[in-house]
């Protein structure tokens, strides 16, 4: 299983800014190793987020996203103590979900 995501959710007024650092190699499938063989593609395909269990955002990514991607978004109506969960699924079927409490 992949390393945990680092999620920070900080409230400001009636919204929260969520910052997520995901740990993933994100191979494009175009690089070659030292022996000249192509390194297989391995990247995050789907990213989604929930606010207190309610879906708030979903995205589809491809191989052009950098290694250890950083994601930032704003959630309207979030307040201190609310839960924000972020989930990703990669093209090999690996999945990771982590949660943060809005502070």
Briefly say what this structure is.
The chain is mainly beta. The protein has strands at residues 6-12, 15-21, 44-51, 54-60, 70-76, 83-90, 95-101. Helices cover 0% and strands 50% of the residues.
Task: Give me some keywords for this one.
mainly beta, Immunoglobulin-like, 3-stranded antiparallel sheet, 4-stranded antiparallel sheet, 103 residues, 50% strand
Describe this structure in words.
The chain has one domain (6-101): Immunoglobulin-like (Sandwich). With 103 residues, the chain is an all-beta fold. It has strands at 6-12, 15-21, 44-51, 54-60, 70-76, 83-90, 95-101.
Q: Work out the number of β strands.
A: 7
Task: Please summarize the sheet with the most strands.
Answer: 4 strands, antiparallel
Write the CATH fold name: Immunoglobulin-like
Which CATH C-level class is it? Mainly Beta
State the shape.
Answer: elongated
Could you state the oligomeric state of the chains shown? single chain
Order of helices and strands: EEEEEEE
CATH superfamily: Immunoglobulins
Number of helices: 0
Question: Can you tell me the residue ranges where pLDDT is under 50 for at least 5 consecutive residues?
Answer: none
Structural class: mainly beta
- Backbone CA Rg: 16 Å
Instruction: Give helix % range.
Output: under 10%
CATH architecture: Sandwich
What is the mean predicted local confidence, pLDDT?
95
Tally of domains? 1
Question: How much of the polypeptide forms β-strand, as a percent range?
Answer: over 45%
Strand order across the largest sheet: 4-3-6-7
Could you give the distance between the termini?
28 Å
């Amino acid at each position: 299983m992949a390393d945990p995501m680092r999620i920070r959710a900080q409230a400001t007024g009636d919204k929260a800014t969520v910052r997520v650092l995901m740990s993933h190699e994100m191979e494009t499938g175009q690089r070659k190793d030292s022996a000249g063989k192509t390194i297989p593609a391995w990247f995050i395909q789907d990213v989604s987020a929930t606010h207190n269990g309610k879906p708030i955002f979903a995205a589809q990514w491809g191989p052009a996203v950098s290694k250890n991607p950083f994601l930032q978004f704003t959630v309207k109506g979030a307040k201190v103590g609310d839960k924000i969960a972020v989930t990703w699924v990669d093209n090999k079927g690996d999945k990771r979900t982590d949660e943060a409490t809005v502070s």
